[in-house]
Amino acid sequence: MSSVYEGDPHGRQAPTSGLATASLVFGIIGLIGCGCLFGIPSIVAIVLGHAATGKTRPGLRGGHGLAVAGLILGYVMLVPAIVVSGIVVYALITEPAMVASWVNDLFSALGG
């Protein structure tokens, strides 16, 4: 009789990889933060997701699906983050006074 987890005769599940969980968390943060965080969480999700897939694929650790989900979210949100970052950099170079005025108005509206 073969079990689902061939490596463990008692059928226990391998522990979930912390890297896979972190990849998914950073992917979600990148999704929520959209381009406002300049893609930093998405890049972290991609790096952690690739590291986690290497450690979860042999079956030593669980969480391969979490790592893949983190990779997908990271890659999907990286493109809009790059676009927003490019727009911000372009605006800072061409019209720094306008950007400063917009930021001051934003903080005033937020009560700061």
SS field, number of helical segments: 4
What is the percentage of strand-forming residues? under 5%
Helix fraction bin: 55-70%
Structural class assignment: mainly alpha
Number of strands: 0
* Residue-averaged pLDDT: 85
Oligomeric status of the shown chains?
Answer: single chain
The unreliable regions are none
- H and E order: HHHH
Described by strand count, sense and barrel closure, the largest sheet is: none
Rough outline:
elongated
Rg, alpha carbons: 20 Å
Report how far apart the termini are: 67 Å
How would you describe the overall organization of this protein?
This protein starts with 17 loop residues before the first helix and ends with a helix. 26% of the residues are buried. The chain is elongated, with a radius of gyration of 20 Å. It contains four helices and no strands. The protein is mostly helical and 112 residues long. The model has no long low-confidence stretch (mean pLDDT 85).
Provide a quick synopsis of the model.
The protein has 112 residues and is an all-alpha fold. The protein has four helices and no strands.
What is the topological layout?
Elements: H1 18-33, H2 40-56, H3 64-94, H4 96-109
Key descriptive features of the protein:
112 residues, mainly alpha, single chain, 4 helices
